[in-house]
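Worked example 2:
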Amino acid sequence: MDLLERAWEMASNGPTAFNTVPMRVIWVKSDEAKAKLQECLNPGNRQQTKEAAITAIILYDMEYEEQLVKLQPDVEDAKRFFKNDGHDINMYRNGNLQAGYFIVALRSLGLGIGAMSGFDPQLLEEKFALPPDKKWKINFLLNIGYPDVAKRGKKQPRLSFEEGTIVV
């Protein structure tokens, strides 16, 4: 099993509401696919994406609840819980939660990552011709590879515990 499959397996063990799995991934690996991706990026994101070993297009499955037959086999008609006003918020919340697990899994395997939102989503959907039978929508991009420590800048400041939290 390669590192990407291992990261997927690790991330899939992270908890989500009702075991929903709305995150989907398209791996951009071939030279042809990388060239198409370059056309969709903001200029400031092109070089780092060109240098990445692989780029993951992180998506949401708009019909994620259809998989609940498999993911919640002991609950009769489990998808009924998500055919309401809470459908989209559950998709975004749990899809982003999964993406966070995925990033941590990749990092734990020694890979470097760079999350990006500087791209044209409509052009990306057009260039990668998402299958018409899939209701997948683009969330963000994730460059993946082995970090070049010599090129890495210093770690930027973070908020302290006191600045970023409230204990009540």
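The longest helix spans residues 87-108. The domain at 3-164 is CATH 3.40.109.10 (NADH Oxidase).
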